Amino acid sequence: MVGFEMVMRLKTFRYRSIFCGAAMMLVMGSLARAAEHVTLKNGFELDCVRREASGDKIRLYLAGKDGAADSNYLEVAADSIVRVEIVPDVPKETEAAPKVLGPVAIMTAPTKEEMHEMLAHAGESHDIDEDLLASVVRAESGGQVRAVSRTGAQGLMQLMPGTASAMGVQDAFQPAQNIAGGTAYLDALLTRYHDNVALALAAYNAGPGAVDKYHGVPPYRETREYVARVIREFNRRKQLAVVAQTK
Known about the structure:
By secondary structure, this protein is an alpha+beta fold. The chain has a domain at 97-246: Lysozyme (Orthogonal Bundle), CATH 1.10.530.10. It has helices at residues 92-95, 112-126, 130-141, 161-166, 175-192, 197-206, 208-214, 221-246, and strands at 36-40, 45-48, 50-54, 57-61, 73-77, 81-86. The strands form two sheets. The chain has a three-stranded antiparallel β-sheet with strand order 2-1-6, with no helix packed on it. Strand 3 and strand 4 form a beta hairpin. Mean pLDDT is 76; it is low at 1-34, 64-70 and 90-107.
């Protein structure tokens, strides 16, 4: 089990590595658009372009811009998949929809540029590192705008209706609103737990009540794996940024 250390808030332009040696993700080639609807034991329902076995894990490759999949995948235990359904083809004339940031909803997945813009804006507003927010989005929904959990959490940062309402989110499936609300909630948790990132992430996943009850990261496998997954992804992003700067 990965141990959790006390860490200070990850500022927008400043960070510290939390766990070292995170594995680098493979960049996959272009694939066809989403063809399967997968339901997991944890309640998440996602569309994927294909599944690929990796030991006792299954990689679910998600559709990206123009239906292509690159490094955007979720890795889950093979026995966590409870149902797979074929997604019927949608006529091309009904696929197109406007992608406008702001009050108009983005009906399809945001581009990398749009995601960067929304995450950067939210991070700057709350003084939270953009890469931390991106890591939460990946762990929560895999970047799926219309992801819905078994418990009713919605959108990119998987906001419960009550949380969304409290954060001023009118449409949890509107990416900019969802990210703004999720970031505001994470900011509140960081403040509550004195900028301890591990505790804030645990509370985001299991609720503040569980963190307060156990005076730390709850002994829930799902929550501990969630915290570790977000931190690994954060470190991966920072490592890639360092590599890019040295080229």
